[in-house]
Structures are given as C-alpha cells and as structure tokens.
C-alpha cells in the first residue's frame, strides 16, 4: 500500500502486537509471522509515531523498520534534493549560455567579407557572450552597404550566431535605378527588401516619382545598390461604357484590374464605372 511502513517485532508474544495496536486505534494493514516470536506488521505511515510508542511501552523489541510506497519515495527525494537542485541550476545555466553569442560564423559566397562583418557586429555591440541581436535592421543595412552584397540573414542556435552573406555575380549590374510610381495616386503598400524608401503608405505620389531609392546610407556613407522592392498605388477611376451593365462591369475590370473597387451608374449612353483601382510596380520581385 502507498505511504506505509513495515515493522519487524520480536517478543515472546509477538502475535499479540496486532491486537494491542488495534485496541489503541491503529489499523494494521497486514501482518505475517516469518518466524516463531516474530511478526512483521504493515501500518500507514501516519500511524508510525503512535505505533512505536505503543510497542516500546509494551516491551516489544522493534528489530527493523522499512518504508515502502510513497514514504520511501519521499525519503529518496529528500536525499536527492541537492542533486535535483544542482541539475536544475545546470540546465538553467546551459539555457542562459545558449542565449548568448559563443561563436560567430560567416557563411555564403560573401564570406570573404568576414573581417568587415565582424567589425560591423563588434561596432553594434555583438561580441563574445553578448546577448543575441534581436533587431538586426541596422546590422543588415551596414552589411548590405558592402560592395556587391545583395543578401544578408542572421540565425542563432546553440550559442552560434550564423551570418549568411551573399554577393551578386560579377556579371550582374551593380544598380537597377530607383523604383518609380506607376501612376498618380496614393501609396497603398510599399515593400522594400533593399533600397531606401522615399515614400510611405498614405503618401500622395505622381506617376514617375521615385518611391524607393537605389542606395543605402550608413552614417555619412552612401552606397548604390540594386533595388528589390514593390509599390502599389491607389488611384481614382471613372469611365463610361456604351454597354449593358454586366458587359460594362467586365470591361472595367479588364481596364482597371480585378482588384478594382467599382460601382456602376446608369447613363443615357450606357453605364458609368467609378471607384478605385490599384497599380503595382516592382524591381527584383515577381
């Protein structure tokens, strides 16, 4: 039974120990007589003190006491508490250490920039046993400013910070020019992977305005880069069609794109499509 103890008792009348304990209100869970004048009793752990007091006060010789079940496990846990605490502390230290930069690896075809990358990391406070960088935007911008570098990423695992640096092939053009607004309207979305944003969602732009510059600026240094970006511009539309409503709506979507938000108004000649359309331009992105 869980949480119980076994007591080996010797006496000329050892078998009477069961009766004596029962009269005192101690429940004997099991009893056996392995030898003459010897009885092995099993009682609940909570009754141990009372049992010892009764038996010792009645001239019974207690030869052996053995804890079993939960009582035994509890004793084992007490003996191991130091070991458990030490193991928990070690695990905590290992977890903490793995959140720190123990090693930096530079990989990719741009690994020949290792010295420059390490200098950039050090300048931004990333060094041995420092916390892993959470915001890598400035680090990325500085690394992308190196000649012909077109991609940079960071990964942290097991205390190792891996920086992947990729460079454009020598035959690739160094710069593609700025990304321009395709139409006049309001910037709906702007995604910039590489380049300098010159507008933001909600800004009004004219057709041909540069919305992403083909350069990066770090400190006072400006470096030309190949732009990787996409812009979507929202603009108003209005066109009359001498067609049925269904045909006019279909033609309007062909003219302005399926994403256009249109409403139709009946006119003398046919139907007037009015609303908002979207135009997208991109460089380096599908």
Observed structural traits:
286 residues, alpha+beta, 5-stranded antiparallel β-sheet, 40% strand, elongated
Summarize the structure.
Helices cover 27% and strands 40% of the residues. It is α+β, with helices and mostly antiparallel strands and 286 residues long.
User: Span between N and C termini?
Assistant: 71 Å
Please state the CA-atom Rg, rounded to the nearest Å: 41 Å
Low-confidence stretches: none
Strand content: 35-45%
Describe the structure.
- There is one protein chain.
- With 286 residues, the chain is α+β, with helices and mostly antiparallel strands.
- 27% of the residues lie in helices and 40% in strands.
- The strands form five sheets. A five-stranded antiparallel sheet has the order 11-9-15-17-16, with helices on one face.
- A hairpin with a 2-residue loop joins β6 (149-157) and β7 (160-167).
- It is elongated.
- The mean pLDDT is 82.
């Amino acid at each position: 039974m869980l949480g119980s103890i076994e007591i080996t008792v010797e006496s000329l009348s050892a078998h009477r120990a069961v009766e004596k304990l029962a009269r005192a209100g101690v429940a004997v869970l099991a009893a056996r007589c392995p030898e003459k004048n010897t009885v092995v009793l099993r009682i609940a752990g909570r009754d141990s003190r009372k049992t010892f007091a009764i038996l010792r006060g009645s001239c019974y010789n207690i030869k052996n006491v053995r804890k079993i079940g939960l009582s035994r496990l509890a004793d084992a846990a007490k003996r191991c508490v130091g070991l458990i605490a030490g193991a928990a502390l070690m695990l905590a230290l290992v977890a903490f250490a793995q959140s720190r930069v123990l090693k930096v690896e530079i990989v990719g075809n741009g690994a020949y920039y290792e010295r420059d990358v390490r200098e950039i990391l050090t300048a931004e406070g990333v060094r041995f046993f420092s916390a892993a960088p959470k915001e890598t935007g400035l680090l990325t911008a500085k690394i992308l400013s190196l000649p012909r570098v077109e991609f940079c990423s960071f990964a942290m695992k097991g205390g190792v910070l891996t920086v992947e640096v990729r460079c454009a092939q020598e035959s690739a053009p160094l710069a593609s020019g700025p990304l321009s607004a395709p139409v006049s309207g309001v910037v709906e979305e702007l995604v910039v992977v590489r380049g300098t944003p010159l507008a933001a969602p909600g800004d009004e732009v004219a057709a041909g305005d540069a919305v992403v510059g083909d350069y990066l600026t770090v400190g006072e240094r400006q470096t030309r880069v190949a732009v990787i970006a996409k812009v979507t511009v929202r603009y108003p539309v209005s066109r009359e069609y001498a067609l049925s409503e269904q045909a006019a709506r279909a033609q309007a979507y062909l003219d302005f794109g399926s994403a256009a938000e249109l409403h139709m108004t009946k006119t003398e000649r046919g139907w007037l499509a009015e609303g908002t359309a979207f135009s997208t331009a991109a460089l380096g992105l599908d």
